[in-house]
């Protein structure tokens, strides 16, 4: 889903720099994990 959003936003010159997932115990940054 993140990749599809990133591609769609590129068509209007918006760059995704991170996608943060927040859970009940912790959060994860897709940029830190190397997915973006």
From TrEMBL:
<keyword id="KW-0482">Metalloprotease</keyword>
<dbReference type="InterPro" id="IPR037518">
    <property type="entry name" value="MPN"/>
</dbReference>
<dbReference type="Pfam" id="PF04002">
    <property type="entry name" value="RadC"/>
</dbReference>
<protein>
    <recommendedName>
        <fullName>MPN domain-containing protein</fullName>
    </recommendedName>
</protein>
<feature type="domain" description="MPN">
    <location>
        <begin position="1"/>
        <end position="36"/>
    </location>
</feature>
<dbReference type="InterPro" id="IPR025657">
    <property type="entry name" value="RadC_JAB"/>
</dbReference>
<keyword id="KW-0378">Hydrolase</keyword>
<keyword id="KW-0645">Protease</keyword>
